[in-house]
Amino acid sequence: MTEAAHTGEVRPITHRRVLAIAAPIVLSNTTVPILGLVDTGVVGQMGEAAPIGAVGIGAIILTSIYWIFGFVRMGTTGLVGQAHGAGNRAEVSALLTRALIVAGIAGGATILAQSAIFAGAFRLSPASPEVEALARQYLAIRVWSAPAAIAIFGLTGWLIALERTCSVLVLQVAMNAVNIALDLLFVLGFEWGVRGVAVATFVAEWGGAGLGLWLCRDAFAGRFWRDWSRVFDRVQLFRMASVNTDILIRSLLLQAIFVSFLFFAADLGDVALAANQVLLQFLQVTAYAMDGFAFSAEALVAQAMGRRSVPALRRSAVMTSLWGLGAGLAMAAGFALVGGAVIDLMTTAPEVRIAARDYLPWMVAVPILGAAPWMLDGIFIGATRTRDMRNMMLLSALAYVLTLAALMPVFGNHGLWAALAVSFVARGTTLWIRYPALERAVGQ
Asked: Apex CA 220: angle with CA 218 and CA 224, to 5°?
C-alpha cells in the first residue's frame, strides 16, 4: 500500500513492513519532549518562576483531559484496519467521519464544561494565587482548540490503520515546528508571556487538524464519508461505542495505577518521590520506543482480522512482538549501562542520585517485563477484542493493589516498584492466556 491509496490488497508481512510502520512513529515520538522544553525555555526567559509553573500546570491539566479521549485514536485504528483488510472502502471513509464527529462532540463538551473542569483541577492540585491566575489565562485560550486536539487522535488512528505512519510523522513534526516558531515569536518577540505560549499551541493544534484532514484527503474523495445512512448506521455506531468504552475503562485503570504510584511514593518522603520521578522518565522513553511496534501490531493485526486470516494474524502478532521484545531488551541494556550517568545529568541532589541508583534495577527490568503487555495491547486493539483488554486490565490492577498491600509496608519503595512490575506481568500473562480465543474468533 502506498502513502496515497488504500486499496485493500494483500501484501506479505515482513520485517521491512513492520519497520516501515514503526520507525516513523518512533521518530515522531522523539519530537514530543522537545516542544515541552521550548515551552518551558521561552517563558523561563521572563525571569520569573510563576510563568514556568503556570505553563507546566496548564499543560498537564489539558494533557490529562485529552488523554481521556485517547480511545478515539486506538478505536479508530482497530476498526479502520479491519475494514481496510476486508476491502470495505466505504466503511473506511465512514469511520473517519464518525471519529471526527466524536472529536467535535468531545471537544465541544470540554469547552462548555471548562469552568467546572479547571476548578476541580486546581482543587486537586492547588497552586499559588499568581501561578493559578496565569494558568487560567493559559487554559482559557488553549481549551478552544480541544476539538482540533481530539480530532488529531482520530486522524492519526486512521493513518496508522492504513500504514501511513510517514504521514503521522509529517503531521507531528509540522505541528511542533509551528508551535515552536510561534512560541519564539509571541513570547520573545511580542512579549505576550504565558498567553503567547497558549496562542502558539492553539494555532498549532488547529493547523495540525487542518493538515491531518489534507493528509487523509483520499477519504473524502468519494461519497462514502458523507453517506449519512452509513455513518449513522446503528449497528456500526454501537460497535464503535462498545470498543471505545472498553478502551476508556482500561485506560482509566492504567492511569490509576500510575497516579497512585506517585501518590504512594510521596508518602515515602521527598527523596523517594524525586527518585521515582527521575526513573519514570526512563519509562517514558521506553514507551516512546515501544509505541512504534505496538502501532505496527495494531495495523497489521486489524487488517488480518478484516481478511479473516489466522496465518496473517499469527504472523503479524509474532513478528511485531519480536521487534517489541528486541526494543525492550535494548532499552534495558541501555539503562543498565548508562542509567547512572543519566540520573546524574537529571539531578544534582546527592541523596536523590543515590536513591535513584538504588532503584535503577527495577527500571532495567521494566522494559523487559513490559514488552508483553505493550505488544499484546497493540494486538488486542487491532483485533478490537477490547472487552478482554478491559477485563485483564482490571485483574492487573487488582494484582497491583494486592502486591502493594503485601510488600510496601515491609520493603517501602522497593515494594512499590515490585507492585508496578507485577501489574505489567499480570497484564501480559492474562492477555496471553486470552490470545487463543482471539485466533478462534477469526474463524467464526
From this structure: 115
DSSP 216: T
CA pair distance 185, 136, nearest whole angstrom: 22
Q: Give the DSSP letter of residue 125.
A: S
Cβ proximity of 69 and 101 under 8 Å: no
CA dihedral of residues 416, 417, 423, 429 (deg, nearest 10): -140
Map out the domains of the chain as residue ranges. 11-232, 246-444
Q: What's this model's pTM, rounded to 2 decimal places?
A: 0.92
Give the separation between CA 360 and CA 355, rounded to whole angstroms. 9
Percentage helix, strand, coil for the chain under 3-state DSSP, each rounded to 5 = 85, 0, 15
Backbone angles phi, psi at 345, to 5 degrees: -75, -30
Spans in the chain with pLDDT lower than 50 = 1-8
Which residues have a Cβ under 8 Å from the Cβ of 177 and sit 6 or more positions away? none
Q: How far apart are CA 367 and CA 387, in angstroms?
A: 25
* Per-position DSSP letters for 194-216, written without gaps between them: HHHHHHHHHHHHHHHHHHHHHHT
Measured CA to CA, the distance from residue 378 to residue 143 in angstroms comes to: 30
For residue 333, what are the contacts with CB-CB under 8 A and spacing of at least 6?
A: none
Chain centre to alpha carbon of residue 394: 19
CB 49 within 8 A of CB 190: no
Q: What is the predicted pLDDT for the residue at 9? A: 58
Q: Cβ–Cβ contacts within 10 Å for residue 241, how many?
A: 13
Q: What is the CA radius of gyration of the chain?
A: 22
Alpha carbon distance 298, 375 (integer Å)? 9
Q: How far is CA 118 from CA 29, 216, 260, 414, in A?
A: 28, 33, 21, 35
Kindly provide the residue ranges of all beta strands, DSSP E only, lying in 154-249, ordered along the sequence.
none
How far is the C-alpha of 361 from the C-alpha of 418, rounded, in Å?
Answer: 11
Contact 66, 149 (CB under 8 A): yes
pLDDT score of 4 = 35
CB 198 within 8 A of CB 137: yes
Q: What is the pLDDT of residue 8?
A: 44
Torsion of CA 182, 186, 188, 191, to 10 degrees: -170
Nearest Cα to Cα of residue 304 among 92, 82, 90? 82
Give every CB contact of residue 10 below 8 A, 6+ residues apart in sequence.
Answer: 307
Counted residue by residue, the chain has a size of 444
